[in-house]
Each structure stands twice: as structure tokens, then as C-alpha cells.
TrEMBL record:
CDD domains assigned: HFD_SOS1_rpt1
Annotated GO MF terms: protein heterodimerization activity
UniProt organism field: Magallana gigas
InterPro entries hit by this protein: Histone-fold
Domain of life: Eukaryota
UniProt-recorded name of the protein: Uncharacterized protein
Length: 144
């Protein structure tokens, strides 16, 4: 499965810096008193960007497409946990969920720069929720 076949228009360099501040917010959700070095957050960002490319490699149009890609990408039970969190985010909606990664910015970039076609907003929200779940999991493991 790895390395993934990334979408033709996916340029990881263009995504650098988009997630760092939000990852700091994720860290504060997971461990309120912990402070991470900038280079550690940049490394996690690089992992999240790579994962974003992997999730977009299937050319998703809908939540179902993303769910299937998550199931193929992650081992059991991580796939189930990531999908559960993403479904919860969908149920609550962007405004009521506790998603801190920039959904609107990612959605616009996916449509305009990566996929080149319209994608359901809920599919973008689902992708972002999965990315945030994995980021939080990485931060939890790192601190243990």
C-alpha cells in the first residue's frame, strides 16, 4: 500500500505550514499542559500531509469513498476508531464538532489544487476529522 499513488496535482510543499498551529491546538486538547517544539510539530505535519495525499489518491467524491480508503489504509482497529471519530464530526457538523484543523482551507485546496473537481463538503470534513484523529493519536503516543 505504501508509498501511495498520490494525485497528480498533489504538491506536499504547498501544504507546509497549514497544519502547525492547528496541531498545537490538537496537542492542547490531548495534553493541556504540554508544549511541543516547532520541529516536532512540523514533523507531525509532514506525516499528516502524506496521509492527506494517501486519502486523496482514490480520487474521492463522497464520504463513502473516503471511508473505504480509510478502511484500506489503516489496520484494524485504527480504521474503525478513525471512522467513528469522523462520523461523529459529521453528525455534529463543522460548527458543533471540536475539529481544530482548518476544514474550509483544506476543502478549498482539495477542490482547486489537488483533485480539480468538486468534492462534497462533508467528504472534506470527514478527511479532516480522520487527519485530526491520527494527529491526536500520534501526540498521545509520543507523550506516553
Amino acid at each position: 500500500m505504501f508509498p501511495p499513488s498520490l494525485p497528480e496535482n498533489f504538491n506536499a510543499q504547498e501544504w507546509k505550514g497549514i497544519f502547525v498551529q492547528a496541531l498545537e491546538n490538537v496537542l492542547h486538547q490531548v495534553h493541556p499542559s504540554l508544549i511541543a517544539k516547532e520541529d516536532a510539530l512540523e514533523y507531525i505535519e509532514s506525516l499528516i500531509i502524506s496521509l492527506l495525499g494517501t486519502l486523496c489518491a482514490c480520487q474521492p467524491h463522497s464520504v463513502q469513498d473516503v471511508t473505504e480508503r480509510v478502511n484500506k489504509t489503516f489496520p484494524d482497529p485504527i480504521d474503525k476508531w478513525a471512522n467513528r471519530d469522523a462520523n461523529t464530526a459529521l453528525e455534529k457538523g463543522k460548527k458543533n464538532s471540536n475539529i481544530v484543523l482548518p476544514v474550509d482551507k483544506i476543502h478549498q485546496a482539495l477542490v482547486k489544487d489537488v483533485l480539480g473537481y468538486k468534492i462534497e463538503y462533508n467528504a472534506s470534513l470527514y478527511i479532516v476529522a480522520v487527519l485530526e484523529y491520527i494527529a491526536a493519536d500520534i501526540l498521545k503516543v509520543r507523550v506516553r
